[in-house]
Predict the 3D structure of the following.
Amino acid sequence: MHTLYMKEKAFSLRGRFSIQDEAGHDAYHIEGSFMKLPKTFTVTNRNGEVVAEIEKKTFSFRPVFYVEAAGQSFEIIKEFTFFKDRYTINSDQFEVTGDWWDVDFEVLQQGQRIGRVQKKWISWTDQYMIEVDDEAMEELLIALVVAIDCVKAEESSNSTSFID
């Protein structure tokens, strides 16, 4: 098991940030599209190879994000609710348990934990700790965290009428 840390840069219009390993070295880079439809995020590893892609569905009544990583695809969809926001992760390959909207959850595959994600609340920018139990699923965990952060940022920008 090892731990990665994602710290999003504050006020970044493009959505550029990195994920560091335990030694503080950049392990992955995330870059979002700017003024492009559909809105996309690309995750690259240390060698510059694309390991995951996240795309926001355009022209949809509710936010939908498509994610591809580690040879798997899944969707994050906002449900219609009146009070508390609720989202669904559609995947038959893995399961997310815990409070993923508040970013404190575990990811399971066939009942086995492959990782855990926690958000640090006392910080200037969003910071996430990603515990990786199964290294083969590391890129999927990273894509999941980036996609959830995209969903949360989308919701936040819609509630404040900010255009990215």
Summary: The radius of gyration is 15 Å.
